[in-house]
Amino acid sequence: xxxxxxxxxxxxxxxxxxxxxxxxxxxxxxxxxxxxxxxxxxxxxxxxxxxxxxxxxxxxxxxxxxxxxxxxxxxxxxxxxxxxxxxxxxxxxxxxxxxxxxxxxxxxxxxxxxxxxxxxxxxxxxxxxxxxxxxxxxxxxxxxxxxxxxxxxxxxxxxxxxxxxxxxxxxxxxxxxxxxxxxxxxxxxxxxxxxxxxxxxxxxxxxxxxxxxxxxxxxxxxxxxxxxxxxxxxxxxxxxxxxxxxxxxxxxxxxxxxxxxxxxxxxxxxxxxxxxxxxxxxxxxxxxxxxxxxxxxxxxxxxxxxxxxxxxxxxxxxxxxxxxxxxxxxxxxxxxxxxxxxxxxxxxxxxxxxxxxxxxxxxxxxxxxxxxxxxxxxxxxxxxxxxxxxxxxxxxxxxxxxxxxxxxxxxxxxxxxxxxxxxxxxxxxxxxxxxxxxxxxxxxxxxxxxxxxxxxxxxxxx
Amino acid sequence: xxxxxxxxxxxxxxxxxxxxxxxxxxxxxxxxxxxxxxxxxxxxxxxxxxxxxxxxxxxxxxxxxxxxxxxxxxxxxxxxxxxxxxxxxxxxxxxxxxxxxxxxxxxxxxxxxxxxxxxxxxxxxxxxxxxxxxxxxxxxxxxxxxxxxxxxxxxxxxxxxxxxxxxxxxxxxxxxxxxxxxxxxxxxxxxxxxxx
Lengths: 462, 196
Ligand code: SF4
Known about the structure:
Chain A is an alpha/beta fold. Chain A is 32% helix and 17% strand.
């Protein structure tokens, strides 16, 4: 009998073309997703006089610079989108452009279209490509030179990461979500805590998560330093994929293959972490790194409790305009944002709407669905109406305010409760202060006008 | 891209952990063509308006930085900004994984040193610049009076010395790639995307 294997090993071995003496593998890439930001890579390809080797496995998406609020588009944003369109046409790549009914954020539409499947190796020039690992795929972000390399050869050189498993056992409390699970482990282990590792999420609290929630969990892997996150595919995964536009035509045969994709019972991990899901509270960040997070019931930590991280925390609090000892519940916000590839899916909008139904937001805010499909669905389900009735702006699909590339920027000094994935200095605009949390918690902050525990607001709301 | 094997110049310390790619280059500059040069964007929002920032006074070839340098997004533009500013080597206790790969593809050495040495170098450099020599072949450096060795994976060294990126290295394996592709889709037809 062969030695027990982890899911990582199974996926890796299935894609390894060869291994160099130094242990680096040349891996076959099944899906390559490109976006406007890939212009550097296409330029490199042109410089080398190379063609795209497998255009049928390459898909283009307009998202990073997609205007989400109508009106005039700045010339350099327009240029980015036009360039992607030209590159897609030249190389024969299927493009989901602004007008396409399937348009949206690359990590939302890959799964939605059934382009993301268990057992695939998926690359994209965006670090949150780890999202697709939620399906039991090997998915990781790459830089522009690597994008050019994949375009030219449909392969990537990569060193096998170490295998790490984070088990969440027990049951999540009502109002606690995958976002809280992620912020919780990152606060525990640090923003470089999983560096060099691929994280497999397991345990009963992960098994009961929906696909949307698993995607949120895997999405944030990179914020804990891991380039890849993954969940073994199961009935929830297959159910989600059946009938998607690009799902395999012989779905049953595919599903039979996919059932083998889990870590063997005896498989050894380089590192294992156990977390009791029942201990997790709604979690918010207070600093400028995702590791600077704490339960909403806590206070901004005192620096002497932070050891080697105290110096960073001091600079963070300076930037965030907060003082040690301040209760997090009560920190006033100026605006809110719901969206992004972390929390812009239909389930995220449903959770936020559940909090906002029949209530008014005290601060302005933007809700940006992760894709045009999510947008239509949210409008049909009446969620969009709930957001606008609450006084929030309902925008188009794209990366939006999250990354500040399309002009939806936060203002300097303004504090934003946000469902995104990075609270870095300046991430949502120069000087803008970002607190990361779940969409439900963002909705609660909108209603209260300050950071607050969403759990009481959900009482009696199923 | 031209390779390098030895350099001598100035080193400067960048204090603080988690200098992420958003700080290294704010997103709004990334739509610019590379030909115009990215050096001016380096740490733009951190540097501009901060009179004391070391990069406002020095143009170093070597940086000493805190842990988790280059964490965050996959944007290779963070490396372009460093390289176009003139930086050829960064020493730090840890790096963002994607950043480290991007660095070597653009002739930038990202070498790991331990926390203690990092602190000693920062202390020696203070807010100023100090003389630095880096030797890739020997895997050693001398910075502000400290001599030390660093480890560098042999393939990364080869790429830096020759100025290669992976496209140069992969061409020789084209036959194997084609063969693998055929076998993969034959065994797993579902892996081929087919719109319904
Ligand atoms: S929402 Fe942010 S992280 Fe996600 S794909 Fe867009 S830019 Fe990347």
